[in-house]
Write a structure and sequence with these properties.
By secondary structure, the protein is of the alpha/beta class. It folds into 2 domains: 2-172, 3-Layer(aba) Sandwich (Rossmann fold), CATH 3.40.50; 175-206 and 229-343, Dehydroquinate synthase-like - alpha domain (Dehydroquinate synthase-like, alpha domain, Up-down Bundle), CATH 1.20.1090.10. It has 13 helices and 11 strands. It has a 7-stranded mixed β-sheet with strand order 1-2-9-6-5-3-4, with helices on both faces. Strands 7-8 form a two-stranded antiparallel sheet. Strands 10-11 form a two-stranded antiparallel sheet. Strand 3, helix 2 (46-59) and strand 4 form a beta-alpha-beta unit. Helix 6 (175-192) runs antiparallel to helix 7 and helix 10 (257-272) packs antiparallel against helix 11. The chain is globular and about 60 Å long.
């Protein structure tokens, strides 16, 4: 088991290893004070792991209630959010109680935003069940729901009290979902760590799961501790995301987040003539990720303009100069369309 400590506005531990779902009751007990726990999960995850988590909690004497919603990005909306906070109120959770987010990024985002909002903030625990959530969205305190105008436009920074990443659950992921999570893993190699990138090149999908997750979490931890509220260095974590979110929305979310990020990375690599473009594109393809978008540039551009990171007439793109060396490049909205076109 690997442990990573985050010292941000809240100090918390990220535990990565096998068999952790069975110990969740004991881990929650260490946090003290909680009597009631609401497990938030979705329709595909709960049948697999819900009973294990709830049994572990009940064995330690916690009162457990469960809020489930249909799987998919389309559930990360205002209606589901208000259904959840009303559920918390109906079950009389207090500020000393907590929420457990059992699932992937959609669950973590939704449950985390509810935790940040209900009673002006209660504690929550991230229990990621996808690779993407394990290496990225479960760490760092970004929570949000989608609006009709765009992805993640309503949210809050709210750090978890604990992250438990049981690597056993990742072995049961369908291949497309696991590969989609690899896009975020590759992102960390491009941004910060040539050795991580080389490890992925050499091992492909047989990479060292616990070690790679731990390394990605360490890298994100370092960035979050430097720039918790995403005003400077943390923006680099958006590599591939600004244009990727446009591609994802244009696909009506038929493309997964990881697939869209892979396309976004490929577009910025080609458009910026990164010296390591060939290696980056080759690795994305090695992991079975798409590197082209089958949509007109006008459509991708239109959807990209709804990105929450736009500031007035400027979008800050993350441009890879080489593996391990990326820059934040303020780009005029008027230049964005031609940039996307150059990368298609």
């Amino acid at each position: 088991m690997t442990s990573v400590i985050v010292n941000a506005s809240k100090t918390y531990e990220i535990k990565i290893g096998t068999g952790l779902l069975h110990t969740i009751g004991t881990e929650v007990k260490k946090l003290e004070r909680a009597q009631k726990i609401c497990i938030v999960s979705e329709s595909t995850v709960w049948p697999l792991y819900g009973e294990t988590v709830s049994d572990s909690l009940e064995a330690e004497g916690f009162g457990v209630c469960t809020f489930l919603f249909p799987a998919g990005e389309e559930s990360k909306n205002g209606k589901t959010f208000f259904d959840l906070v009303n559920f918390l109120a109906e079950h009389k959770l207090t500020r000393s109680d907590l929420i457990i987010a059992l699932g992937g990024g959609v669950v973590g985002d939704l449950a985390g935003f509810a935790a940040a909002s209900f009673l002006r903030g209660i504690r929550f625990i991230q229990v990621p069940t996808t690779l993407l959530a394990a290496v990225d969205s479960s760490v760092g305190g970004k929570t949000a729901i989608d609006l009709p105008a765009g992805k993640n436009l309503c949210g809050a920074f709210w750090q978890p009290s604990l992250v438990l990443c049981d690597t056993d659950v990742l072995h049961s992921l369908p291949s497309p979902i696991f590969r989609a999570g690899c896009a975020e893993v590759i992102k960390y190699g491009i941004l910060y760590d040539p050795n991580l990138f080389s490890h992925l090149e050499e091992n492909g999908l047989a990479f060292d799961l616990e070690a790679v997750i731990a390394r990605c979490v360490e890298l994100k931890r370092n960035v979050v501790m430097e720039d918790e509220f995403d005003t400077g260095a943390r923006m680099k974590l958006n590599l591939g995301h600004t244009i990727g979110h446009g591609v994802e929305a244009r696909s009506n979310f038929q493309l997964s987040h990881g697939e869209a990020v892979a396309i976004g990375i490929a577009i910025v690599c080609r458009a910026s003539h990164c010296v390591d473009s060939d290696r980056i594109l080759s690795l994305l393809e090695q992991f079975g990720l798409p590197i082209t978008a089958a949509y007109p540039v006008e459509d991708i551009y239109a959807y990209t303009l709804s990105d929450k990171k736009r500031s007035g007439g400027i979008v800050k793109l993350i441009i890879p100069n080489a593996i391990g060396n990326c820059s934040i490049v303020p780009t005029k909205v008027s230049d964005l369309k031609s940039f996307i076109e150059a990368g298609l």
